[in-house]
């Protein structure tokens, strides 16, 4: 395997691993469900993407042609993670899960829960 491919694969794995570590740490440390949604949907999705890109490059080199399985997995994750986070947030709103006191825009939660259009403030 050429040295430049090894460097690209290593860098992609390192970046993916760092994002996965940050996402895992955020999932464990963030205090409420509304804040925890950011960790798996942003950092972990980017981390898995980095690992799968490295795998796609490695498998493409071994097979001699473009390996699209990893690309399809990455595409599926990038599409489904935001949808899953949206469904989790809607469930938390439906069950009236209380956010922390310092969470911003809490006044909009009732309007969102009742599917009303939030009123714009006249500043």
From TrEMBL:
Transmembrane found in the keyword field: yes
Disordered: annotated segments: 104-123
GO molecular function, one term: sodium:proton antiporter activity
NCBIfam families on file: CPA3_mnhG_phaG (TIGR01300), PRK12674.1-5 (NF009316)
Protein name per the record: Multisubunit potassium/proton antiporter PhaG subunit
UniProt entry keywords in alphabetical sequence: Membrane, Transmembrane, Transmembrane helix
Bias (Basic and acidic residues): 110-123
Record carries keyword Transmembrane helix: yes
Originating species: Marinomonas rhizomae
Chain segments annotated as transmembrane: 6-28, 71-89
InterPro entries in the record: PhaG_MnhG_YufB
